[in-house]
């Protein structure tokens, strides 16, 4: 989680680091800090508990120096406090480190280093796992190693997934960085006589679009002119950077009050871009071009397993449904963090589809790794970040074209991952001959209406706001759906939890009688997802059962459905959609409801408490 930034060049590092941290605050925001080194090797470390603005307010005089690193934290070890905020220094004060990840064996390493600290009358300055890293490096330097060698040694001692950036007093014009165990990314940005470093692209975009993504096992030495990679398995080399095609405007909030709202509104565009060129009608084809899974592999698939976490898991549930219905082959979904620690039975003819917005979700990467090592099954990743670790692990990737998603609660990447799964289902069904050209045409024509369904759903914002205001004081919601809408009920409940801090349960409507109905009374509102479709009558029976317990019902159904609106207390109409496409018509409304509840409650929507985007720790 957490955001790391770095700068080395002729400008003053401090303001650049703070601006970079601001752009990465979605990755963690319980404390932040910077370390700036001046030409003579004097290091100033400034850090504060709380959001970045607390740090900014505390800096009365910007430290001088053209080299520095910064961090915005999502605490894993040690509560948020000034003391636990990064950067962390060695007891000698020479080595300064920021870290993303967890040092799993930090207790063991602390115990090992303790004797030396005791002998010198020194003590640990924080409760974090991080602090062992500068201490290890500093001890090895004192024993005569070079910085690169000490860093390589220290990294080799850490268990777990970690990304770090380091500065050292004796090298005031360099930053060092390393990445191990599929920790969240580190990207190096190339400027003109200056170099940048960040966990994620938004911090680099205002400065450069020429970048290099560090790979696992890379140890990077960055000065103002160059990046050198050192690895255990080859001679040091200067890697070739790539040009990224992203507009800095994509990361600006523009006229919107929150990034989440901006990204909800960007959904029709994100969907159209993701589908463009991948759903062709004449002749019909799905994912014909930029998709690398060989036709023979596609033809041989006997089962599909879709994995993900959080919102991506809900996309996986819907993907399973489409793969069964459209491609006509057995499919399942799994939570990546559970999958990893079971003994699932896969074979080489199972296709594993991993959905991960960032391409760096640690549990999903762990599951992909296991799939490769144990079964050698083919893998497809659906992600918004080209060049991310997941794209390197998978045999083929479907890159969503959403642009950076900054709001912590995923919105546009949810609908774009759905479109990607739909296309994949079409491609598999066609490759296996279960979908004729005509069937494929029908499916693709349907998919092409998705952007407009989403757009019309977004147009219901005002109605969502009215309903949200009416229920903004409720502390519980039950969200019911059946079939494909069950997954959306789960997603709606997740959104309520994430940004509105409302306890909400997503349930399969048929399951309600088996427990949750006991909770219902006048003060327990129920949101029912009830578009017209094969299970509509069963949904209305569930609604009757809820109403009989006097729980208020908010139904989201087809525009103009008077029968449904007469049955319930509050009704929000969405554009009618063919059965498999209801996720596109319903999603904006469930997002907007959660958004409006959070807004009415005055919550911090883009940075909800305890959460961070890009979950790179277990
Ligand atoms: N484990 C470190 C800490 O708790 C880093 C967490 C992060 O990735 O933000 O400070």
Total helix count?
Answer: 20
Judging by the overall fold, what is the CATH architecture of the largest domain?
Answer: 4-Layer Sandwich
Terminal Cα separation, in Å? 10 Å
Please identify the top-level CATH class of the largest domain.
Answer: Alpha Beta
Explain this structure:
By secondary structure, the protein is α/β, with parallel strands linked by helices. The chain folds into three domains: 3-244, Glutamine Phosphoribosylpyrophosphate, subunit 1, domain 1; 261-448, 3-Layer(aba) Sandwich (Rossmann fold), CATH 3.40.50.10490; 459-601, 3-Layer(aba) Sandwich (Rossmann fold). It is built from 20 helices and 27 strands. The strands form five sheets. The protein has an eight-stranded antiparallel sheet, covered by helices on one side. Strands 5-6-7-8-12-13-14 form a seven-stranded antiparallel sheet, covered by helices on one side. Helix 7 (267-275) runs antiparallel to helix 15 (450-458) and helix 9 runs parallel beside helix 13. The longest helix has 20 residues, at 412-431. The relative contact order is 0.10. It binds glutamic acid. Glutamic acid is lined by residues 1-2, 28, 73-78, 99-102, 128-130, 617.
